[in-house]
Request: fold
Amino acid sequence: MCVYVCVFLCVCVSCVFMCVCERESVCVCERVCMCVCVCVCVCPSETGSYRWVIVSFGLLCVLQATLNISLRLAFYKDELEPFSNTTEHRALLLARFNILTRERDDLTRKLCGSTKEWTAFGHSCYFLSTEDKMWNESRLDCRERGAELAVINTREEQEFITRIVVSSWMWIGLTDQQTEGTWIWVDGTPLTTTYWNSGEPNDVNGGEDCAMILRVGWNDFPCGNRLSWICEKPI
Reply:
């Protein structure tokens, strides 16, 4: 009677990367290795020679590797399915966004009033004058309209105002009349984000204490000069 001793051996001879790609350049890659597996059972004979019984060789390994690849591809196909309609989803979201934007703009215009004198942006309405006044007079005119000289808080607001100005120079609600060099907005907030033109503010002749906006930035200017102005009121 012979007692067999069995050993299972696997040697990987080649590895490749398998990738599954969908639209929008969404890809998932997996390394797949081809292995040769052998199960060898050995029984020592009386003369010391061995009988080799090969239970599985080569073909079993190839079949197993093929099955593994198929299963992995099917798995990643399911994983990638949510990405297959990315373009359609993006178009749908964009359409919904555009509808909401139009509704918001319509509501903003109604809140600003039907007159074309006011322009809506963000959470504020803006009025651009067509006449010239001194800075203090301009501020008074804004207050009579239930507004204030414009306070510019963000880059987006700055860019918006520079797009709509109809004059090259317009007063905004910024001044250092109380303390020279300490610029304060008319709502009492300190100046933190600035858009001064190069070399400004320069306080030429010691009398430029009010800010005006140009198409490219701000300048300090004598408050007694007469310019057009921009009013802002919150919605």
The first helix runs from residue 59 to 80. DSSP finds four helices and eleven strands in the chain.
